[in-house]
Amino acid sequence: MGKAEFIERAFTPDAKIKFVDAGELREWTRDEFAKRFEKPTQDEYRRVRRVERLDVTGTAASAVLTLNYPQVQFTDHISLLKIGGQWKIVGKIFSAERRDVGQEALKTTQERSLPFEPRKIVGNIYYVGANLISSFLIVTPAGNILLDTGPSQMLPQVAANIEKLGFKLQDVKVLLNSHAHDDHCGGFAEIKRRTGATLIASKLGGDLMMQGGKGDFYWGDDAKYEPVIPDRIVSDGERVEIGGVSLTAHLTPGHTKGCTSWSMRVHEDGKNYDVLFLCGLTVSPYKLTNNDKYPNIVEDERSTLQRLGGMHADVLLAPHGFYFDLEGKVARQQVGAPNPFVDPDELGRHVSEMKKDFEEALQAQEKQR
């Protein structure tokens, strides 16, 4: 935590903090450094600190820490001694690299929004998204369901993919969402205008949509989109039904507060398959401890991982193609061959991988108060 009292407790009185500024060596005393943290920062909830390496020999130790802030990333190299039974920082050197989280996110979204050939996944479920940002069309006799649209700039591609498969955008009657980030629901407002579809979301997901993504506990206001008001709010276990198709909402918070996974059953070639549209489990980039904007993120993530670990899915789908090996499975799709999207063990493997990722990130971050 960036607080003056913590700095004074952690450093010895004669500790020096050294760095290079404009090619020149600069130096602060402990007290000069502590004064920089006398007032709380407005973006503390976005400041993620991690211990990348720690080497201990007897009463001496060295550590490397990264401090990811919205506009700069610091790398700290600190020296410690165990004095009177307590570890104290006796010196620190650091480097700083300027960054712009908003621009980084925009670049990532563009790289993940490249054209991708639409296709049938299983039963009445079709992929109409981009190379790495998903959008799913679920076809029913009474009108279709669109789960996620991607960001607004991806809409022409989604619309074209729907038409290419022989369906019409105007036949979309229901909009569902995995989570209310720009790269998954940024196109909702425009789709609603064009189709009149009913937008259904969780309470907390809907709250973020109405703010256009502003005030997110991780992105702040850096990933905003056109605000949109849901037509219906769903609770955990509630069903959405249309044309004989039923999807069940599963609130799986962690990646976002309103994260919603959806399950349904499809029929293909004489067999029934349970399908899970996973919301997302990634939390490792977030501030997991001492986060005033999302104080129960650790409890939510653990609960979600436990819950999903006990679920069954023959087909796992997700908001990003890399979570369910979209490109690899598409490469293995062949007429008459087993459907590569059917993999009853995939959900369990994915949950185990994400649990490991979460626990490692939590261990690397600062301790809870």
Name the assembly state.
Answer: single chain
The total domain count is 2
Shape: elongated
Over the alpha carbons, how many angstroms does the gyration radius reach?
A: 24 Å
Computed structural class: alpha/beta
Let me know the number of strands: 18
DSSP helical segment count: 10
Sequence of strands across the biggest β-sheet: 7-8-9-10-11-12-13
CATH architecture of the largest domain: 4-Layer Sandwich
**Helicity level:** 25-40%
* N-to-C CA distance: 9 Å
Give average pLDDT, whole number.
95
**According to CATH, what is the class of the largest domain?**
Alpha Beta
Strand content: 25-35%
Within the CATH hierarchy, at the fold level, what is the topology of the largest domain? Answer: Metallo-beta-lactamase, Chain A
Summarize the structure.
The chain has 369 residues and is an alpha/beta fold. The protein has two domains: 4-99, Roll (Nuclear Transport Factor 2, Chain: A), CATH 3.10.450.50; 103-364, 4-Layer Sandwich (Metallo-beta-lactamase, Chain A). It is built from ten helices and 18 strands.
Structure, described:
Helix 8 (297-309) runs antiparallel to helix 10 (346-364). The chain has ten helices and 18 strands. The strands form three sheets. The chain has a seven-stranded mixed β-sheet with strand order 7-8-9-10-11-12-13. By secondary structure, the protein is of the alpha/beta class.
